[in-house]
Amino acid sequence: MVVERKFISDALVKLKISSYLEKALNKAGFSRVEIQKTPVITRITVYVTNPGRVIGSGGQTINALTEDIKERFHIQNPQISVAEVKNPRLEPRIVARYVANSLERGANPRSLLHSVLRDIIAEGALGAEIIASGKLAAKGAKARTIKVRHGYIPKAGAVRNFVDEVHLTAYPKYGAIGVTVRIVQPGTKFPDREIKEVALPRSIAEAK
What we know:
By secondary structure, the protein is α+β, with helices and mostly antiparallel strands. The protein has 6 helices and 7 strands, in the order αββααβααββββα. It has helices spanning 2-24, 51-55, 60-73, 92-104, 109-122, 202-205, and strands spanning 30-37, 42-48, 78-84, 127-134, 144-151, 164-170, 177-184. The strands form 2 sheets. It has a 4-stranded antiparallel β-sheet with strand order 5-4-7-6, covered by helices on one side. Strands 1-2-3 form a 3-stranded mixed β-sheet.
């Protein structure tokens, strides 16, 4: 039970740090964070699209961020490193944020989801799913859900751990819209099957 409680506690701390960094580093294009504890230090690796915004002039921004995390979350000797996101189209949080922002600007939901799905698969993803649920039409319309997916996205069992998943919320003027993005990264090896390449259907390939 002690080990289980510690595991849950560590997961909650990571979730809180991730939520904090998402707000603090929004302009830097925050994608995700990895945390590794050792007996001496806690390594925190932050993945962003613009590392310069995290480091700041002379390292001032990252130093201030390190001290803030140390005080807020009571982490002893945190050390933050910054990694640049290599392909934003394969980062679920960045994709979900783009979808949410586009919906808030009034983009057509179905066309938007199809075009984004096309871009993800074109980058080599073995599977992707995007779901938008809520007030997707004009004022007074009923809430509905639009779901687009292609490739292999496991829904049950241990293989779900091979899927990167993020949930965000868009706030257009007609009401909240939940956005879910699931991506299976290129080169992922599944124990129960082999997937080498995913071909786009014509309807998605020609999405505008």
